[in-house]
Amino acid sequence: MGDAISSLLFQPPPPTRLKESKVIWLTNSHGKRIPSFFVECAVDERSGEGIRAPHPGEASQHYHRGTDSDHYGKGGGCNSVPSSPHIRTPKELEMTVAMGHRLGHGAPTILYSHANAEDLGNIYPWCKFLSKMLGVNIFAYDYTGYGLATDQGPPSEDYCFADITAAYAYLTYVLQIPPSSIVLYGRSLGSGPSCFLAARTAEEGEAVGGLILHAPFLSVYRIVIDSGCTLPGDRFPNVDFAPSIRSPVLLIHGTKDSIVPFNHSERLLETIIEPYRAEPVFIKGMGHNNVHASVRPMFIDRLRRYFDSHVLPNITAKRMLGPSRISLDSRRRSQNLARLVNVDVA
């Protein structure tokens, strides 16, 4: 029964290729090797903060909240930071950390968990677009059994949880990015591992900086069976993880979604503790698989509003505490997490 469910739930596409030099290989707690990549956003060389590109025809806007200053493409003169979104090699990232540049202490970093019939090669253009428009770094990974990890065996719920744990360990332990600067973004299938990690970090006392759920489901069984509880054998019970989450949660869903019913987001919102509910983005007429060009300006504006209201103030507050106080607490937790995984950046 379990194998049958997994074969229906997980449908990896034909693998797409990425330049090997750009791939960061992670090994999860089950010994499975998965690929990932890191897109560093455009930054202001004076503040180290991310810079947002404007919508076509829009006036230039700097990432600083409430200010008008330099725009995307200006600044970035320092060799350690890009002047436009740029995929970083493992060695470049190691060098950045070794030189004392603190990734994630200015611009937030999105940990992106993709949807079902996708892999890293498919989502790279979308990740670069989000980095450019939001002024954020993006770290994306493939699930075991997807993309360049198709030789690691079939995907499973347990592997997905181990995969995102390995990705999070890389961000916090290797790149030394504080949890408060990490925002989880899970689209469809990716909402499962994202909810799992958001709940886990909260239970461990150091919640991530935010959680974005794009077309999420209550649980896999509930997509087809409106059960009143989580049934034996169900997968990715997001509705059970949600009450434990202590990060601001943004829900995004199209009202015409024919794969995951729109009411899953409405009901999931009700299970999140009220102080952590951001204003949801329910897009009239949008389906499941993409964000149409006609709604992208509104989509980006709402994401920016979420970061400005719920994520950036916490990053600024943590930064005011000073690096030693932040890193001491974060390092203890990330070292414990890193014992579960092996990060191969050679």
Which keywords apply here?
346 residues, alpha/beta, ten-stranded mixed beta sheet, 10 strands, 14% strand, globular, AB_hydrolase_1, AB_hydrolase_fold, AB hydrolase-1 domain-containing protein
Compile the SSE list and pairings.
Elements: H1 2-9, E1 24-27, E2 33-40, E3 86-88, H2 90-98, E4 109-113, H3 120-134, E5 137-141, H4 157-174, E6 182-187, H5 191-203, E7 210-214, H6 238-241, E8 249-254, H7 263-271, E9 281-283, H8 296-320, H9 323-338, E10 342-344
Parallel strand pairs: 4-5, 4-6, 6-7, 7-8, 8-9
Antiparallel strand pairs: 1-2, 1-10, 2-3, 2-5
Helix pairs in contact: 4-5, 4-9
Structure at a glance:
With 346 residues, the chain is α/β, with parallel strands linked by helices. Helices cover 34% and strands 14% of the residues.
Give a structural overview:
InterPro entries: AB_hydrolase_1 (IPR000073), AB_hydrolase_fold (IPR029058). This is AB hydrolase-1 domain-containing protein. Residues 108-216 form the AB hydrolase-1 domain. This protein has 346 residues and is of the alpha/beta class. 34% of the residues lie in helices and 14% in strands. It is built from 9 helices and 10 strands. It has helices at 2-9, 90-98, 120-134, 157-174, 191-203, 238-241, 263-271, 296-320, 323-338; strands at 24-27, 33-40, 86-88, 109-113, 137-141, 182-187, 210-214, 249-254, 281-283, 342-344. Strands 1, 2, 3, 4, 5, 6, 7, 8, 9 and 10 form a 10-stranded mixed beta sheet that branches. The longest helix is centred in the C-terminal third of the chain and has 25 residues, at 296-320. It is globular. Residues 62-81 have low confidence and may be disordered.
